[in-house]
Structure formats: C-alpha cells, structure tokens
Design brief:
Elements lengths: L4 E5 L2 H9 L4 E4 L14 H8 L6 E4 L16 H17 L9 E4 L2 E3 L5 E3 L1 H11 L3 E4 L2 H6 L7 H14 L3 E4 L12 H14 L7 E5 L7 H9 L3 H6 E4 L6 H7 L8 H13 L1
Parallel strand pairs: 1-2, 1-10, 2-3, 3-4, 4-7, 7-8, 8-9, 9-10
Antiparallel strand pairs: 5-6
Helix pairs in contact: 1-2, 3-4, 4-6, 6-7, 7-8
Length: 276
C-alpha cells in the first residue's frame, strides 16, 4: 500500500475533486481560511463533505488567525474553551465515523521561562480525551517546537515527539522545521523523526509522521526517497500532506479564490507515492 495522501480542503467541491483524483484522507477547514493556515469549519461545511466522500476526515480545530503580536498556537483560556466547545459539537454531531478513520487536527503550545515554545501537554491531552474515540493529529505547531536549530538538535526533537505521545495524539503534521522552508529542506530532520517514531513504537502504537509543507508533485519523489530510505517500517509510519492547489490563474478562472484543488496535481502525487 502506498503512503496516505492527505489533502486539506476548504469546500465540498474541493473535497470531491481531491477524492475523485486519489486523495486518501482529507483535512477539513473553514472556507476562506487557507491564508490563515486553516481554521475550524462549521458543522454545515463538515456535513456537506462527510456526505460526499468515503475517505477519512480530519477536522481542523483552530479558533483564530495568527496574530502578529505573539507566536501562533498560544491560546487564551477563552480560546481554549472555544476549541473544547467546537470539538465537542463535532463529536456529538453524528457526522464523524470512527470506522472510517475520522478525527481531528489541532495544536496548543506554551512558552517556558526562557521564551522557548513547547507542547502544552495538559490542554492538548484534555482535547484528545474529549475527542475519543476519534484519532487526533498534532498540527504544524510542532515545527515551532522544533525551533530554528532543529536540524542539529536530535535530542530536542525526540523530547518533543515524546510530549506528543504523552498527550495521546496518534500523529503529527510537520515540515521538520519552522519558517518558510519546506519539508524537502528539512528532510534530514524528518528522517530522524520517523526513526524516533518507529523506535518508540515498538512497545506502543507508532506515531504517524505526516509530512507537510511545500510538498508538490515536482519534489515528492525526492522527498519520499530521503524520508523513507527503503524502510518498510517507515512506509507504515509516514503519510504525505499537500494542498494540491490549482495555480493562481486557474483559480481566478474557476472562481476558487485560491482554494480549489488541482485534480492533476493530486493524481501526480498519488502515482509517485505508489511507485516509491
């Protein structure tokens, strides 16, 4: 089996295109929130997608856009309670299917005394428990935890993954490092994360490493080769996440406002992953 190809979508139309062309999981976000990195969708938006596709859904739980004056994924008590309410509403809605593999994606950070960002274990664990029986993946907030020195700081990365596991997450979405550099630039760290997830999973369920951040048909073969390196265990621990957006000119013609999915891009990535 090829690795999972997860595509973030912002409408039922985009979800349909993604699945018809080979996406094997969808991350569901509020319409119009791509520029913000994805925000919590409405129940109506999830309902429209849940009724239209057979693949697993991962619902984004993110209460607001990034704020310039502070690091992202640091939430107030009011924002945390909003996340709790939104997650509880989805769990109670009957829209999600555990057997299909539906779940959630979110991430809450905290700042330590030195100003370094870390995983807020208590609040993340509370949301993971509230989401049961649905799986939860930690958002790309993880890249901020890794920090600018991530490529040279293996022990810190191992500690960060241990915190994710302690919260009860089943996976983590990551580019392997922060900033505008994509997953291909952080391939060495991603390989370390996969190795750590496999090793730690010998006595517990293996964390899924969801590789995302600039994943495109033009680079996914190289990226997969570097991250997987021919390991069968790695193939079972790694998924790939790509927006597969239509280009800007096509988006204007389609009225997609930059959030339309390119079926051709989905197909190309899917074919490549099936062949690595």
């Amino acid at each position: 089996m090829p690795p999972v190809l997860e595509v973030p979508v912002f409408s039922a139309a985009a979800a349909k295109v993604a699945v018809e062309h080979g996406a094997t999981r969808l991350e569901v976000n509020r319409a119009g929130s791509y520029a913000a990195g994805g925000l919590t969708p409405t129940l109506a938006e999830v309902e429209a997608i849940a009724d239209a596709v057979p693949v697993p859904l991962r619902i984004m739980i993110r209460p607001r856009r990034p704020q310039v004056e502070q690091a992202d994924f640091l939430y107030t008590d009011d924002e945390f309670q909003q996340m709790r309410r939104e997650l509880a509403a989805f769990v109670a809605s009957g829209l999600l299917q555990h057997d299909r593999g539906d779940g959630f994606v979110f991430g809450i950070l905290k700042e330590n005394s030195t100003g370094r960002l870390g995983v807020d274990i208590e609040r993340n664990r509370e949301l993971v428990q509230a989401a049961r029986p649905y799986a939860c993946a930690f958002h790309r907030a993880f890249d901020l935890v890794l920090g600018d020195a991530a490529a040279a700081d293996k022990r810190h990365a191992e500690s960060a993954l241990a915190a994710i596991r302690e919260c009860g997450f089943s996976g983590v979405l990551t580019a392997g490092g922060p900033g505008s550099r994509g997953a291909l630039d952080h391939a060495a760290m991603l390989k370390e994360l996969v190795s750590t997830a496999i090793t730690a999973g010998t006595n517990a369920p293996c964390l899924e490493i969801i590789v995302g951040g600039g994943v495109r048909s033009s680079n996914v073969r190289t990226l997969a080769a570097q991250v997987l390196r021919g390991s069968n265990k790695a193939r079972h621990a790694v998924s790939f996440h790509s927006s597969c957006l239509v280009d800007s000119a096509a988006a204007i013609l389609l009225g997609a406002e930059g959030e339309g999915v390119s079926g051709e891009e989905v197909e190309q990535i899917g074919r490549t992953l099936a062949s690595v």
